[in-house]
Amino acid sequence: MSYVLNEEEQMLRDAAKAYLAEKSPVSELRRLRDEGCKDGFRHAVWRGMAEMGWNGVVIEEAYGGVDMGYSAAGVLLQEMGRTLTASPYIPSAILAATALRLAGTEAQKSEHLTKIANGEAVYAFAIDEAARHHPERIDTTAVKDGNGFRLNGSKRFVACGNGADMLIVVAKTEDGGTGFFLVDPKTDGVTRTMRRTVDSHVPADIDFKDVKLDGDACLSEAEDGTAALAFILQAGSACVAAEALGIAEESFDRTLTYLKERTQFGTEIGSFQGLQHRAAELLCEIELARSLVMKALRSLDNEPSQAPLWIAAAKAKATEVSRFAAAEAIQLHGGVGMTDEYEIGFFYKRAQAAGEFLGDDRYHSDKVASTSGY
Amino acid sequence: MSELETFRQDTRNWLEANCPASMRGPIKDEREVCWGGRDFEFFSDDQKLWLDRMAERGWTTPTWPKEYGGGGLSKDEAQILKEEMKAIQARDPLTSFGIWMLGPALLKYGSEEQKHEHLPKIIRGEIRWCQGYSEPGAGSDLASLRTKGVSDGDDYVVTGQKVWTSYADKSDWIFALVRTEPDAPKHEGISFILIDMATDGVSTKPIKLISGKSPFCETFFDEVRVPKANRIGEAGKGWDIAKYLLSHERTNIVSAGGMFGGMNPVMAAHKSGEVDDGGKLADPILRGDVARLTIDALAFEATLQRVKDESDAGQGVGARASMLKYVGTELNKRRHELNMSALGADGLLWEGDDPSDGQSAREWLRSRANSIEGGTSEIQLNILAKRVLGLPGA
Lengths: 374, 394
Description:
The complex is a heterodimer of chains A (374) and B (394). Helices cover 52% and strands 15% of the residues of chain A. By secondary structure, chain A is an alpha+beta fold. Chain A folds into 3 domains: 7-122, Acyl-CoA dehydrogenase/oxidase, N-terminal domain (Butyryl-Coa Dehydrogenase, subunit A, domain 1, Orthogonal Bundle), CATH 1.10.540.10; 125-217, Butyryl-CoA Dehydrogenase, subunit A, domain 2, CATH 2.40.110.10; 225-371, Butyryl-CoA Dehydrogenase, subunit A, domain 3. The longest helix of chain A has 36 residues, at 226-261. Chain B has 3 domains: 3-95, Butyryl-Coa Dehydrogenase, subunit A, domain 1, CATH 1.10.540; 129-236, Beta Barrel (Butyryl-CoA Dehydrogenase, subunit A, domain 2); 253-388, Butyryl-CoA Dehydrogenase, subunit A, domain 3. Chain B: Residues 236-389 form the Acyl-CoA dehydrogenase/oxidase C-terminal domain.
């Protein structure tokens, strides 16, 4: 298990850099915001990603994927973090795809994984029911009703929820277990409320009132999905951590450039020791986060029994470091860092939102402690 | 079986047969650390036996060339030896600045004669070395050092003072930075010289620290005659060797493994009874602080591994040694601070009936020096800013 990117991963990274620079630079996020886009992402970019094979990195070849593993997804997300690409990548290609892969029947996989891989549809994963991430507290219920189910409950801030074609909803089953349910958001009884967040993303609050579902809407009917849910959230957390790392790297690179260009008192401000030490400190923090993110993704692919500790540590650290890097970026850019015209502010906003998604640094620090036995 | 598997099996068998039972398990008393040297008093016969057996195979320095008495092992073999020693909790047969610091410099910069003279004695633990770098007026600004070596025929006559010389009072030889070219620019007038501490005019005086211990000394040179043959490399080129060694030292300080052994805050909380029935730390704020420490310790462990992988892939460690030094030492200080918090008043004990009483406080105090010795944290940040980030100035 090496910490150096293999050749395949390096090629993937280079391809991602080139594609995202052209199709999805930070200015694109600004445009989505200013246009008031109700989906929060460009469908053309999502389909473009599918064409490059990105949407199927954790999907088996039989369903149209390339099955490269989570490390490869991390490579992509790191680059998407650098360009602040708003896309359904984590909700669809990671969370929904992992849920289907772990819990879906052959028929479900064949239908839905294929749609994710080829970019035909956007899937959202509805888990949170409160403003903060508490996946162990699920009040949404799915009760047996004839051959199908009746779904009741509310989900909050479902990522890409407003633009999604299909939802995978986490609900409690009658025996107290965890179930995953495929729900078309146009079904009777489903109400979506668009929420605009600070990072210019468009999640949705979604209410389910006596929503009637067919029997085949349930993934893994035979088995309790609690363990699967834990793995799905770990995979998601490792991937968000990779995105956060990209946010930190790009914030830092832009800051470093600025320190070398901006002159005051007749010299580059980067020659002042007070600022040099802050930059060096940031370098160390980002390198630490990078190691954890890599270890988390690699363990997910190669040694899943070790993954929970490394992923919790990676998500906590990457959350903290991306917030820190973006905050330092604003401070070290001075006044221009506060302007909407400059892009640095977008990084600060997304760092906060990505940090919150699937549990912030405090949530994951608690996980580190309990996983370590204290 | 592959060659490495065979090597592992042979190594395991040999260690099993040759590592005395009393040389396995954690060190309980400082005197159990084997430093070697002319006047070293072995703690036990086993300690000497273990040193001799390992030195015989060159395994006190596994990767050094065989021609000087080293083990001649490849990197992979050395790693296996390390793993197999760890598996039976075998203690290091020899702890030595000669191995850590001087050896690498001799191997890279020394003449054949110098290598044959000094390396075997380091490997066998016969000569104990100390490092003479810092001076009262030359700390972070090390290159401003003033200890002078005046040329006199085949000798230098050395006069001056060194400070923070680790274990100078117990050492046989010192490798020192000496200004031999007084008219050259600051960095170009320094030579790297080996001095026998038994020579007339050398004296040492221990410095008592806040921990109550005296690991450091002042070292005085009063017209000490040193043959020029004891100079490593060219006259005036000592700064290059010093920089090379400092980078070695920085990586070693944090990766040798010694730094993160011993007590951690969870053990400390168990000791002071600050845990609930399920083993959870009772104080939620302390638990949060400890979790943050765990995260950074995991990150550091993963970073050491990553830097090693990248170095193997040819990207080199270079100035990133400064990152490892900075992060590792700051982390260790935090660990000791949290140990003290978790121990509460127990941690404040200075002496008592049990030999371990006072140990936590002393280790905590000792750790404050981590971010000073081997180049302060601030110097490491300077190096990172300039050499890694390419920031301008100074």
